[in-house]
Amino acid sequence: MKWIQRAYSLVLKLYPLAFQKRFGVEMEDVFHIGLVTARKQGVLIGFVLSELLRLPGSLLSVYVWTMREGAGKPVTVSNTVGGGTAGLNIPSEGWGSSLLSGLPHLLMGALVISSTLAGSRIFPALYVQAALYSAILLGVLIFCIVNGWKRWSASWIFYTFFVLLILLNLAMNSLSISISGENYRLYNLGQVLFFPLLLAYLLYRITCKDRMQGVLAAIPPMVIIWTYFLEFVPEAAKSLAWAGIFLLAFLASVLILRIKHILPALGLAMAVPLFGGIPFAYLGVNQGGTLPFIEPGPSLLEVIRQYLPFLVMTFAIVLGPQLAVKLRSIGIHTAKAGGKVYYRLVLGGIFLGFVYVLLQWINISSGTHLQSQLIQAILITAVILYVIGFALQLWAVNQSKSPAGDYSKMLELGLLFLPLLFMPLAIVLAFSLTMGNVKNWLVLMVEIGWVIASILVVRE
Amino acid sequence: MKNPGHLLPLREPTLYILLSLRGGEKHGYAILKEVYDLSEGKVQLSTGTLYGALYRLLDQGLIEQIEVEDRARGKKAYRLTHVGLEVFEAEVGRINHLLQSVKKQVHMIGDGQA
After folding, report:
1. Residues A343-388: pLDDT tens digits?
2. CB atoms within 10 A of CB A120
3. ipTM given for this complex
4. Fewer CB atoms inside 10 Å of the end CB: C or N, chain B?
5. How many other C-beta atoms are found inside a 10 Å radius of the C-beta of residue A29?
6. First-to-final CA distance of chain B
7. Which is it for strands B63-67 and B76-80: parallel, antiparallel or unpaired?
8. Closest Cα to residue A58, out of B94, B32, B45, B29?
9. How many angstroms separate the CA atoms of A422 and A425, rounded?
10. Nearest to B55 among A50, A55, A65 (CB)
11. How far apart are CA B58 and CA A166, in angstroms?
12. Residue range A103-116, pLDDT digits in tens
């Protein structure tokens, strides 16, 4: 009897930490009473089996509920109705959590640098290393879930998906699966379309729960994206560039958990590509394959011309979800006038805007010719949804009788309009500039203006 | 509180838990036992299933946890909130309506065949 009770106490450890704290003792008591009763009735084995068989379902439902509602998380003080914690009251975390937040960048840096230096020479070792990393990341992911999604866990999410993607590619290579024709088209659609959209949605959901977590979760993709510049760059130079940016990401993630305000956190996150991206752009232009085939060839001006728009695009990864959460908070404030529907229309428009950008990118980069009518229809729908959603949201704010004052919300909404609209456009323009199709410094100025406006809107 | 309709239909174990608590506050084990009795043995909750459901119902505000003096079976008990009662009654109304519709349809088919 005692060992069954002890085993049950151990099984309870599988539940999320917050759930254990709330119900653990009670569950042990209830189980004990059930055990004693079952023994008296001579159905002890049946009772234990019944508890065991229903355990997976119970665990699953508790985890699903915990993740869906954010229940069981340690309570953080929130002063935005949208659910995200705002800038002024976020408690700072201890050094242990801060280091855990930075650790994935060091691990991933080691993986990327060793695979860069190895090239294709020690392929099996690389395969083992990637498998080991995915096991670590998966283990951490489970640990994060069990511990109630502590703030540091946000740093690990992207890399978990990223390593799985690497593993998938390695597996496909080693299995000699031919990626050509229709297969390539599907493969490209899957990677270039599905993965960024999933990432955008995940970043938005994470930011909805906790804005600081949103900043942390955006750092890994802001690092990895610079790989764009590294084609044909020598391995040693590549490794140095990676070492620099991963080290910056580590430092920024550690420090972000030590501060309480959203604005310096954003500043730290944006400093990673701001400084870490320079070597990539320099190497791409001087030693790699990103230089457009035009005169006068590699120059400092060319480096800046490629670096700045790409940097703006990188900033969109961290600023976009923050802007979306601002809009969501206004939508929830004006729920009685339909705000919850209208803000979703706006975000739906932006999401379709991303789909448009990515499909265009697939057409350009892979030579795949997706139906242009379909792509145009997506763009038109995106714009219609966006404009109508915004107009209705404006109307909802006007109708709402919120004690906080409608004027300030109208102003906030007005300020949000352009930065949100430019989120997919920032990507289009960045690519156009980087590809050398547009040589308009005015467009670049608009993009930089977008970054400044976005920071002003999301700073509180 | 939103329209209680958005939580409907309730799952069978949830309905029985609310039904059990409608009779007054109860400890975890008492709920477990009463659900078994009320459902005539058809719904047999495990400890994990029960507390998973209580966790969800507490978060939804349908029930609340209260401190009680009876230490023999833990210090906590659960009771239905006003919102919980509303949801329960809405579900009973929904089931009644469904039953009436079915009866009516069956009756009409029966008449037609006769």
Report:
1. 999 999 989 988 888 887 777 766 666 677 888 898 899 989 999 9
2. 8
3. 0.88
4. C
5. 19
6. 49
7. antiparallel
8. B45
9. 5
10. A65
11. 42
12. 889 988 888 888 78
Q: Do A61 and B32 count as a contact with CB atoms less than 8 A apart?
A: no
User: From the CA of B78, how many Å to the nearest CA of chain A?
Assistant: 12
Q: Which of residues 26-55 of A touch B (CB under 8 A)?
A: 26-27, 29-31, 33-34, 50-51, 53-55
Number of H helices, E strands in chain A: 16, 0
Closest CB from A19, A50, A71 relative to B46: A50
Phi, psi of B79 (to 5 degrees): -140, 160
- From the list A222, A316, A211, the residue with the least C-alpha distance to A260 is A211
Give the Cα separation of A274 and A248 in Å (integer).
10
User: How many C-beta atoms lie closer than 10 Å to residue A297's C-beta?
Assistant: 11
Closest to A38 in 3D by CA, of A26, A47, A28: A47
Token output for A6: 């002890």
Q: pTM of the predicted model, to two decimals?
A: 0.62
A344 in reach of chain B (CB within 8 A): no
Q: How far apart are CA A47 and CA A50, in angstroms?
A: 5
The helix or strand, by DSSP H or E, that contains position A456, with its residue range, turns out to be helix A441-458
Q: Residue A218 forms beta bridges with which residues?
A: none
The shortest C-alpha distance from B109 to chain A (Å) reads 40
Owner of token pair 């695009």: A313
